[in-house]
Amino acid sequence: MLKGKDILNTAQFSPQELNLIMNTAASFEKQVKDGNIIRNMEGKIVATLFFEPSTRTRLSFETAANRLSARVISVADAKSSSVAKGESLADTIRTVDGYADVIVMRHPMNGSAQIAADNAKHPFINAGDGSGEHPTQALLDIYTIGKEKGALGGQTVTLVGDLKYGRTVHSLSYFMTLYGNKMFFVSPQSLRMPSEITVDLKARGADIEETENLEKALAVSDIVYVTRVQRERFENPSEYEKLKGSYIINRALIDQAKKGITILHPLPRVDEISTDVDDYEGAAYFRQAHNGIYIRMALLALVSGKG
Ligand code: NCD
């Protein structure tokens, strides 16, 4: 079903494809935990091109490739590649497409994923394009919700923080709409979800309430998804300084929230979740980061026809 396909955004997936990805990830998780050597991608080469900083996404893709017995070639820093010499993205991709069987890329420009996919014959996976989308993060987010909550759908979810520049929430909100979840969008006025996204989500049947009142949203939410204010997207550093502490989740706030609330965060956190929340049992963000390995194993294997 996904063989040969590019992964560019979250609106592209059918419910059947999502089921396949979730089931494949669960199967790989079991095999890894059972200590099996998995050879689905033996003889294949995965390229990871990261032209923006990353810890989890790059290392979990590379871990995933290694767990599948593929080999990895990597650019971890734009400064060390020919991009620094002025090479175009299209030319870089055409070249790497001649080396690898799957290409994974993160890039600071919105729309760069589409350009890359258009220039690659092999499957291409978007690992974050500017403030656009981050579909593989959203896939691991819903995998985590399924594991933490035992279900996907019929939930109330608060997305809080930088909804303007946060690509993870752009991607995740499409899945929440698909699964019929109610969403609260909580952000400072100047960091609201872009209107073209809310309009599109509503056309797809989304139930969205925009508010600046976090306490009220948390009182009725099953899940809160916290995001960092995306400093690197601000033209004016003083604007960032003004907004960075807008919403901070601490233990006192969680004690007043709906009982059993699950806390997610794509990480890295700066100060938007206090460390006194970390030992709350519903604080799932490090489990969430770990789940990225199995989702990325599923994606690499499925687009390669090796699921
Ligand atoms: C996110 C990203 O890069 O968009 N990080 C990640 O991939 N887990 C979130 C962020 O940087 O704030």
Walk me through the structure:
This protein is of the alpha/beta class. Helices cover 39% and strands 15% of the residues. The protein has two domains: 10-132 and 292-303, 3-Layer(aba) Sandwich (Rossmann fold); 135-289, 3-Layer(aba) Sandwich (Rossmann fold). It contains eleven helices and nine strands. The strands form two sheets. A five-stranded parallel beta sheet has the order 7-6-5-8-9. A four-stranded parallel beta sheet has the order 2-1-3-4, with helices on both faces. The longest helix is centred in the first third of the chain and has 19 residues, at 15-33. It is globular and about 55 Å long. 46% of the residues are buried. Bound molecules: N-carbamoyl-L-aspartate. Residues 56-57, 128, 134, 137, 167-168, 227-228, 266-267 line the site of N-carbamoyl-L-aspartate.
Features:
307 residues; alpha/beta; Rossmann fold; 2 domains; 5-stranded parallel sheet; 4-stranded parallel sheet; 39% helix; globular; binds N-carbamoyl-L-aspartate
